[in-house]
Amino acid sequence: MDRVWVFYAIQLTASGYALLRGGAPERLTGLALLLAALSTSVIQRDIPVLFAGMEVGVMVVDLILLVVMIMITLHADRFWPAWVTALHALGTGAHLAKAISPDVIRLVYAVLSAVWSYPIVLLLVIGTVRHSRRIQAQGWDLDWSRQDRTIR
């Protein structure tokens, strides 16, 4: 359980950094990731044996986050959200694997659905650092693709 609290601390730090220093895509992603982590912790609090069966609540949170990340990826003038979306899609796919084959080992299901969280948080931090550097170097950084300038 300690590793879960360590992840929450890392996620909170990365999201806070993105909210303070990031552009709109970084802020939205940081907020979405933080809300997904908090929602998952609330959903899993009362489950006595995690990942023994299909984690429907976690799957719903993951699907909502996947839709949000797809929308950010489609509109952001950044490349890193595509990597975040792809990694999160892999984690969300673990639910599909469990639905197709309920015999998937509990530990495999848990690892496949969660292991992508760490590189996702790292990508958020890298994206935020790169945004900050572009602001320092150029004085500006386009958040959204040119056709989407109305999105703030």
Provide structural commentary.
Helix 2 runs antiparallel to helix 3 (56-75), helix 3 (56-75) runs antiparallel to helix 4 (80-100) and helix 4 (80-100) runs antiparallel to helix 5. The protein is built from 6 helices and no strands. The chain is elongated and about 55 Å long. It is mainly α. It has one domain (2-148). It has helices spanning 2-21, 24-44, 56-75, 80-100, 106-114, 117-138. The chain crosses the membrane at residues 50-72, 107-126.
Global structural class: mainly alpha
Total number of beta strands: 0
Give the DSSP E fraction (strand runs of 2 or more residues): under 5%
Distance between the termini: 38 Å
Low-confidence stretches: none
Shape: elongated
H and E string: HHHHHH
Helix percent reads over 70%
Helical stretch tally: 6
In a nutshell, what does this entry contain?
By secondary structure, the chain is mainly alpha-helical.
Features of this protein?
membrane, transmembrane helix, single chain, mainly alpha, transmembrane
How are the SSEs placed, and which strands pair?
Blueprint: H1 2-21, H2 24-44, H3 56-75, H4 80-100, H5 106-114, H6 117-138
Helix pairs in contact: 1-2, 1-6, 2-3, 2-6, 3-4, 4-5, 4-6
